[in-house]
Design brief:
Helix content: 25-40%
Distance between the termini: 52 Å
């Protein structure tokens, strides 16, 4: 296997490289060294090895040594003269970075430091966009010499700029949840700021009916419902000083369905927030000042991955509903007791309801009803508490939807049923 020095000599015989770019090609070898230190050490070691071989009689290496000495771009005139090379008037530029890398790191570290100090940024990460030709030149060397221990120039810039900013300022590099992402664009030599979204988790209760989750604009361009969960969330934008807010909700209820009990899980994602000192208690106060019909209880900050968990678990989490039901035929306590027993841990086959076919594909769902408890109010009206899987259409469980849901309450009782009112009483959490 070829030694590191042999590979370095081959590289420098053909390509002029600055200390950083050469060191980066062997970045995973040796701990505690910067690429500039590693590169300089490799150059000196290579020239010493060539000098030893020439002194031992390998005169054919003199031309190789001269090319390596010139392409090493070392400032030591004595080392160059050792091989009969005069310091060039116009030194060759680094093949990869064209002698720009040190300046790139220094100048962008200064720019980012200034922004961090001016805006009192507490945490950040660095991103880099590099010109395609620069990346291409680096990859040519990696492929040509089958280099296995290299790192990319973008990685070095991110690390070195981040280290310097962190040393000079009070801000820290935070890969998991940075306050700001700085994108260094070497194509136009600019720094762009991307403020990470603020995500907060909690629950909302919808105490009235005809309230949608999102603002609903009809085909006529007018609002279909005068109040939505989104309206309340937008009311808090001024406090958070964010550009917009996105709702991530654990499931969906119809506009005429209340959400009571302890509420439905929700994550509010505030885009580009400019306020750092978010007080969740005060945020709740702002949210709950909008209307008495919608109440929030936001209790913790979360990360982006939490949203995926919330949505994936929404279909698994069991829910408890309360339904007020009208029956065309008279109902007895005995019939309701039989219904409770029949629907205990009952598998329900449910095609997409007729009322939502215009916006959802027709497919068969298999959901469980775990338990039903009933109270007879009058001969034609009864109350039902229904514990079931998330994703079950409860209205259709009651009516049968012309046979598209089976078994249904209507089918079992042998009477057309109508859901007069429906409430979400509980949504189980998997967090």
């Amino acid at each position: 296997m070829e030694s590191v020095i042999d590979t370095t000599i081959k590289l420098l015989e053909k390509y002029p490289l600055c200390n950083r770019c050469l060191g980066r090609l062997f970045a995973r070898l040796g701990r505690g060294l910067g690429n500039d230190e590693r590169g300089k050490a490799l150059k000196i070691a290579s020239l010493l090895e060539l000098h030893k071989k020439i002194l031992n009689g390998n005169k054919e290496l003199i031309d190789t040594a001269k090319r390596v000495a010139l392409n090493s771009k070392l400032e030591s005139k004595e080392l160059l003269k050792l091989f009969g090379v005069e310091p060039p008037t116009n030194p060759l530029k680094c093949y990869i970075c064209e002698d720009r890398l040190d300046n790139i790191i220094n100048s962008f570290a200064e720019i980012v430091t200034k922004i961090v100090n001016e805006k009192n940024i507490e945490s950040f990460i660095i991103g880099v966009k590099a010109p395609e030709d620069l990346i291409k030149r680096e990859n040519i060397l990696v492929r040509e010499y089958r280099l296995a221990y290299w790192e990319s120039i973008k990685r070095e810039i991110k690390r070195e700029v981040g280290k310097r900013v962190q040393t000079i300022t009070k801000a820290r590099v935070d890969f998991d949840d940075p306050q700001t992402i700085f994108i260094i664009d070497l194509n136009d030599n600019t720094v762009k700021e991307e403020v990470r979204s603020l995500l907060v988790y909690g629950k909302y209760r919808k105490l009235g009916r005809l309230i949608s989750q999102n603002i609903w604009i009809g085909k006529d361009g007018k609002r279909k419902y005068s109040l939505s969960i989104e309206d309340v969330a937008k009311h808090s934008l001024e406090y958070v000083k964010a550009s917009s807010v996105v709702l991530h909700i654990g499931g969906r209820e119809d506009t005429d369905v209340r959400v009571i009990g302890d509420g439905r899980p929700i994550v509010l994602e505030y885009k580009s927030p400019n306020r750092k000192d978010i007080d969740l208690a005060y945020l709740n106060k702002v949210l709950n000042s909008y209307t008495p019909w919608i109440q929030f209880n936001i209790n913790m900050r979360v990360k982006k991955a939490f949203v995926s968990r919330l949505k994936s678990f929404a279909g698994q989490a069991y829910k408890i509903y309360r339904a007020l039901i009208f029956s065309e035929q008279e109902i007895t306590v005995e019939k309701l007791q039989s219904l409770e027993k029949f629907f205990e841990n009952k598998l329900i086959l449910q095609r997409t309801p007729t009322r939502v076919l215009r916006r959802k594909s027709d497919r068969l769902r298999k959901k469980m009803v775990h338990q039903v408890k009933t109270i007879l109010i009058s001969p034609h009206i009864f109350l039902a508490l229904i514990k079931c899987d998330g994703g079950l259409y409860v209205k259709e469980l009651i009516t049968g939807d012309n046979g598209r849901t089976s078994p249904s309450f209507s089918e079992f009782l042998g009477s057309p049923l109508q859901c007069l009112m429906l409430d979400v009483m509980h949504v189980h959490e998997y967090i």
